[in-house]
Design a protein that fits this description.
alpha+beta
């Protein structure tokens, strides 16, 4: 059975499913969020995995004490992915800008351009 924090999921559902084009789904049995059919954000163990432009991912890893390399199921470090581990689920609300950046990045990579805000 997948291991994730259901309280984190409730906050992410509230934040992300209100955004246009974001669809719920699964990633290796974990709750996940997709845009344009592509994975951008997922719950994993004690945190949240986020796909970002490589430069932004590296900046978060260097500057945010809660950011670690995202390595689901022991996979090698992925350049565009970080995992944010927070104890209080509501604290993920302060990462809304990061989540929006992830959505934009994935849409742009999928050739779907900018979303309207």
């Amino acid at each position: 059975m997948a291991n994730f924090n259901p309280e984190h999921k409730a906050v992410l559902d509230d934040l992300l499913l209100a955004l246009p084009l974001v669809q719920p789904g699964k990633m290796f049995g974990f709750p996940a969020y997709y845009v344009g059919g592509k994975l951008c954000i997922c719950l994993y163990e004690e945190g949240v995995g986020i796909k970002l432009p490589e430069e932004m991912a590296q900046k978060l890893l260097a500057q945010d004490e809660h950011a670690i390399p995202f390595r689901p199921m022991g996979k090698p470090k992925m350049r565009e992915w970080v995992q944010i581990n927070l104890v209080k689920s509501d604290d993920y609300r302060q990462y809304l800008g990061v989540f929006e950046e992830s959505i934009q990045h994935v849409l742009t990579a999928a050739g779907q351009g900018k979303t309207k805000r």
